[in-house]
Amino acid sequence: MVEYLAGNRIIGITTGTSSTSSQTTKSDGRSLWNGQPRTELGQQFNTGHVLVGEIVTKVTWRLYKTGSPTGLVYAYIRDSSGTIRETSTTTLDPSTLTAGSSNDSAQEFTFAGNIILATGDMITVQYTGGSSGNEVGVRTDNSGAVTNSIFRQYTGSWANISGEALAYIVTYGSGKPNKSVDGSIFYTTDTNKEYILSNNTWTEL
User: Fold this and answer.
1) Whether 141 and 55 share a structural domain
2) pLDDT tens for residues 43-58?
3) Is the pTM of the predicted complex or chain greater than 0.90?
4) Residue 139: domain span
5) Out of 11-15, 68-72, 121-125, 170-174, which region has the weakest mean confidence (pLDDT)?
6) Are strands 19-23 and 73-78 parallel, antiparallel or unpaired?
7) Residues 145, 181: one domain?
8) Same domain, 59 and 86
């Protein structure tokens, strides 16, 4: 809960109520690996989507493996041009996944909760390790797109995939205020810290 004071100052606690936005139909899948043109998949959120203007704290992807992939899987929040705005605080060892798309599992990636999602931002999953036959699979839905959202893939540049969507659950709402202006100062009474908002990002002072 937060209280908005004069002079763009805000006071409150960092433990807020969380909500989720999801697309859980999984009728297809796409593989990621080094040497494959595709090394990252993302869901872009545009004007009118519930996530725009919210603080994302977690994304859950449905993942599986083929063969014996090595390395790490990452999740990011990127802007519409692909620039990283936030990197997940958790990574995944793909060797722990189960083989086969019918054996996919829910894999959670958490974020620090400092980014206010802007129109056109993407939440992505990346795997640049492995090889042909040693891949990370990401479950998708090929029966229709998500309203006010675009499924995208990275093949050296970002490209839209029409009529499809990733399978995902996004958790949002962290306790940090999302209805603020640049220069706002947020004092947290539970942790005794101060944050300043700049370019839709909260940074500790």
Assistant:
1) yes
2) 999 999 999 988 899 9
3) no
4) 18-174
5) 11-15
6) unpaired
7) no
8) yes
